[in-house]
Amino acid sequence: MARTRTAGKKLTSLSDIYAFFRQNQTPITFLSPTPYNILGLGRWINRFEYINFFDSFDGTHPKIAVPREHGPHEFRSIEDVNNYLLRHKDVRARLKERGPGYLLLVMFDEETEALARELGQKIALPPAKPRKHIDSKITTTRLGNQAGIGSAPNTMGRARTFRELMKLAAGARLGGDLVVQTPYGDSGRTTFFIKNEADWNKNAELLVKEQLKVMRRINHLPGTLEAVATRHGTLVGPMQTDITGFAEVTPYKGGWCGNDVFTGGFDKERRVVKRMAQKLGNRLYKAGYKGAFCMDFLIDTDTGRVYLGEINPRISGASPMTNLITSTYGGCPIFMFHLLEFMGIDWEVDLRKVQQRWAEFDNWSQLILKYPVDRVEMITRAPASGIWRMNDKGEISLTRKSIDWFLVSDEEEAFYLRVYTAGDYRYHGADMGILVSRGRFQTDDRKLTERAKQWVAAINRQFEAIPVTGASAPVPPPAHDANKMF
Which domain holds residue 70? Predict the structure, then answer.
């Protein structure tokens, strides 16, 4: 691989790190359905490029390449999309033209790894096999225990009947109001709330096949953060509270649909969460995992106690807000340290000082807009990506076709990143787009703000579509499948 002018020199300051990435000559490519997860990172890194399936910017983003299409596809997962891209002749030609380099992805499997090797690309993330192992909610709980980080009161095991489930719960003194999770999958689709046999029967077909994590149901505030495990310790991004389950935004009860990132309040909990992430990151590094990971947590609103939720060993939905805050306010994107770990660079800086740079910032929020209606339609008109402004009547207009969300100036503006556009199909649960704005979209008592509701309704009004039925209608992915696009 090509080497930069500073590649042989130990980097001992942020200025060294900035210079290294500004002078970088090794191609770094983020390949994913959309640029969402690390949008804006290309401002900091020379020879950084995105390759995407969805053309969110109509060809106007200077660092995004989208292959020419050849008909409709029925993808079941992000891995399907990424493997399709790596087999596409336009993508293969682009990667060969750029030369050997590093590949970043949100999700990938062994097939992705083989395709990347064919193209001379090194995936700058831990391999698929250990990622899948860590991704299990069962493994998360055990790793947390080893790191001295407790989960909500729980037990693990199998149950073939409701009676066996209750026997498991009784043995751990969990009571009769339970939260049950299967090892893998999006939280809104593989987390079940069970109080009686009728609740069990609704999902028994899935539950009897899996090892289960059975938890006492608690009143809680869910949250997340992104951290980066490095050889010198673990850097922790800002704490984010989860926005989940609002019918205006997602059809999935309990399903993740956004985040608030804000200062003020939860001072004690913030300190606890930060320590938890550092301990977990250090434990992961010791186990052979390095780089970015997402740690979900639960704050018990009755006691204030903080519990480990789950680990997402990847670039994640927490990454956009993390990189926005750390780059805009701290002047140092946390993801740079992920790349240093994988590029074989000798570096050492005071991580405590870097961490302090991210202590103060403005409030920001993001919403993941899913299609909540149970029907299939072909889109005939869709809102463009860019910065939109809302008037006092709740009407919005596109003010400028920005390629980055950090230029949103106030709470009357929001950046919309389009996923599906005219000619695409929308279906129940489809990821239509992402909305990013200053301020908060959720109240302290976990209610969607009126401003958030206005923005969601206004964006939805920008779409026009026609019903599609019969043989011409595509088959939507199963509701429990990992069919999200970021």
Answer: 14-124
